[in-house]
Design goal:
Blueprint: E1 4-7, E2 12-15, E3 23-28, H1 39-57, E4 61-66, H2 73-81, H3 86-103, H4 119-131, E5 135-137, E6 143-145, E7 169-170, E8 182-188, E9 205-207, H5 209-221, E10 225-231, H6 235-250, E11 255-261, E12 264-266, E13 269-270, H7 281-286, H8 291-299, E14 307-308, H9 311-332, H10 347-355, H11 360-379, H12 385-402, H13 409-412, H14 414-429, H15 433-445, E15 448-453, E16 456-461
Parallel strand pairs: 3-4, 3-10, 7-8, 10-11, 12-14
Antiparallel strand pairs: 1-2, 5-6, 6-8, 8-9, 12-13, 15-16
This protein binds adenosine monophosphate (AMP) and zinc ion.
Amino acid sequence: MALRLHNTLTRSKEVFTPIEAGKVRLYTCGPTVYAPAHIGNLRTYMFEDILRRYLEWSGYEVTHVMNITDVDDKTIEKAIAEDRDLLEMTESITQRFERDLATLNILPAHHLPRATDYIDGMIGGIQTLLDRGVAYTAGDGSVFFDISKDAGYGQLVNIDPASLRQGERTSDDDYGKDQARDFALWKGAKPADGPYKWSAPWGEGRPGWHMECSIMSSHFLGQHFDIHCGGVDNIFPHHENELAQSRHMFDTPFVNFWLHSEHLIVDGEKMSKSLGNFYVLQELLDRGLTPEALRYTLLATHYRQQLNFTLDKVRESQKAINRLKELARRLEQVPVGHEGQTILPPDDQWRAAMDSDLNISGGLGAIFGWAKELFAALDREALSAPSTGDALAALRSYDKVLGVIFTSSAHANKERIEELIKQRDKARSDRDWSRADSLREELAAMGVILEDTPEGTLWKRG
Ligand code: AMP
Ligand code: ZN
């Protein structure tokens, strides 16, 4: 079986073949750092983590790039409204973002470029588009891409070319596909932008969002690479525009596979900052939910289906993980040389499911079916030692993708735990026993066991 992935460009599942044998060049659109990520955003990064981990599990060497959009309308507006320096603000939000990913055991990208470090490259790319006659300058120092010059425009989102608004243009980064029109490659500086402007041959201003991703991806991955990902809302206009301008800048197809994950929703609506219906990670951890249960919740629904987020689902996820952790613990206790039944790991089913466009439900189904058989044999003390060893090795191997069994929330969430322990120590020295107890309970819910010793409080994972 070969890995097949659903390509938005062709609207079909295609066999994945990398440009260079054995290697995958992967670009995933990163956050706009004007506010902390919400768990809807994190669902998209989780999908990309599973994709990357499964590619690595399958033997590919992956180079993963994720951009940080540290200059755009939203970041500038926020910095000015809060009277903060743009880069100080974006760097602090970026660091929080990196911590959130680490808490959820999402592998860090190999490169995390900040848009403001690549502005010269963006100016060069825009100049190429002007020289080639597919872009034009407007009176205010802005530069627009002329979609009427691009015969292939609309192929990613599947727009009827007749519906394109010829000659109309927009400076917005985001708009609907029924409003498709010439888009900004460079935005001329306005007084409201304050000091955040850069010099270009056609006037002062800043790059458009789409240009940022074309330049940062090609800088690290070359002008033609394997996979480009984002959430479905990135298909239009962001990726359509990136594709149009990149084909004209680079004379290549730009990207072979475009993959998009569906939204995380609450009460039937997309979780988003603008609707105000969002959770950030820390709020959920503060309620005692573990990083592993949140990770599992975000990964266990197939990436092309909407994920309806509920706290009940997270609690169910915790049970599923506890079962797999319990299995690992029981397997570790089987004595060496024990005779009994042979049970083979479900490698073929796992691989067949995941090869089919990352069918995670099928993959998890195979693992839980096998776990049930193993528990039954363990209960009867009837599992052979070689099967035990194979089972542990297989669990470790599947967990290279899942990342929820052989990790500890205590480890992933170390800073938070140490803070709670400090608060509990303080409550104890203040003789505030009810607060100390409630902190102990909160820690217990996170799987942390405390031991009070003369040297202070020690803790371990339960
Ligand atoms: P932004 O910071 O708004 O540029 O979004 C960062 C990433 O999160 C993009 O890839 C979006 O497609 C994705 N995203 C935004 N909202 C959601 C959501 N509710 N569910 C899943 N992904 C989302
Ligand atoms: Zn992007």
